Amino acid sequence: MKRFSLQTRLYSGAGSLEVLKRFRNKHIWIVCDGFLASSPLIELLRKAIPADNRVSVFSNITPDPTIATVVEGIAQMHSLQPEVVIGFGGGSALDAAKAIVWFSKQQGVNIETCVAIPTTSGTGSEVTSACVISDPDKGIKYPLFDNALYPDIAILDPTLVVSVPPAITANTGMDVLTHALEAYVSPRASDFTDALAEKAAQLVFQYLPTAVRKGDCLATRGKMHNAATLAGMAFSQAGLGINHAIAHQLGGQFHLPHGLANALLLGAVIRFNAGDKRAAKRYARLAKACHFCPTGANDLVAINSLIRQIEQLRQQCEMPTLTATLKADKGKFRERIPAMVQAALADVTLKTTPRPADGDDIRHLLEELL
């Protein structure tokens, strides 16, 4: 038996911030990073909130939110006792807000509504039961999954993402594609998640290059914003896989942007997963659905066409190689492979990978990056 549920009310399109006008005479607590807290976007958010509400801001969120940040947020939430919490920003802000609300509820601090408003098109955190918290001392990212992590409301307003720089647009867009691909070949995939993942992948291949080159195109931004949410809905139900299990370690150890880490691994992971007959057929089916090869092509031809399209997409988005990105040299990377292998084996996302992987498999995938 498979389960599928949609627990978040979704509002999309330009002007969808107007949904916030439903809140009257509430204490609203905004969780965001320091940059957003002093940017014009926070003013757009404040203007959408009726004046009779009391608004507080917690802006200590950093990329890859840490355990310490979440603990600090919980303490503030205990002190302020807000009725509405708004996670505002990229995946880090949304994940932090969700974690703070979740842990606070376990300690008896409840809220009326949790709202997620993404300002990047990538993680899909606005509609998922997942969040990722980091321990910088150990260099480990901890993915958390629980149905209580779903926000109550998600607002997808593309006007909030038109100013996202090209490199971040590319990284977050490739994160969307990875979510879609991993959900598509997951053992927990269903007709429902397939539809979401397939559409998300098609949108990324069609619109990401334009979003990178011409970020002020509102229609294109809207398509990528929708793709991120579709992929988020898919993987929240179906799970992820080895691509994310390893990417979390590249982020934890070397602070690679998460989407870039995923993109660097995608081709090799697809080849590895295609060793599983079911996964191979699914990759081939997706390649044909995206019109990357003739419908009568055999699975190997279709899979290779999918990998070529991904490599072409990376080139169109001018994404760097691992060597160009690493602050440490290759020797340092090799030194840390054993630790990354062990952490990846313990990563919860590995549970839904389509082809079982051991330490040697993960080590080989890491070595392929060099």
Automatic annotation (TrEMBL):
Give residue ranges for domain Alcohol dehydrogenase iron-type/glycerol dehydrogenase GldA.
Answer: 8-158
Pfam families hit by this protein:
ADH_Fe_C (PF25137), Fe-ADH (PF00465)
InterPro entries given for it?
A: ADH_Fe/GldA (IPR001670), ADH_Fe_C (IPR056798), ADH_Fe_CS (IPR018211), Alcohol_dehydrogenase_Fe (IPR039697)
Q: Domain Fe-containing alcohol dehydrogenase-like C-terminal, which positions?
A: 169-368
Reading the lineage from the top rank, the first entry is Bacteria
- Transmembrane region(s): none
Q: GO: which molecular function terms?
A: alcohol dehydrogenase (NAD+) activity; metal ion binding
Q: Which cofactor does it need?
A: Fe cation
Q: Which UniProt keywords apply?
A: Oxidoreductase
Q: What is its EC number?
A: 1.1.-.-
Q: Which family does it belong to?
A: Belongs to the iron-containing alcohol dehydrogenase family.
Name this protein carries in UniProt: 1-propanol dehydrogenase PduQ
Question: Which species is this record about?
Answer: Phytobacter ursingii
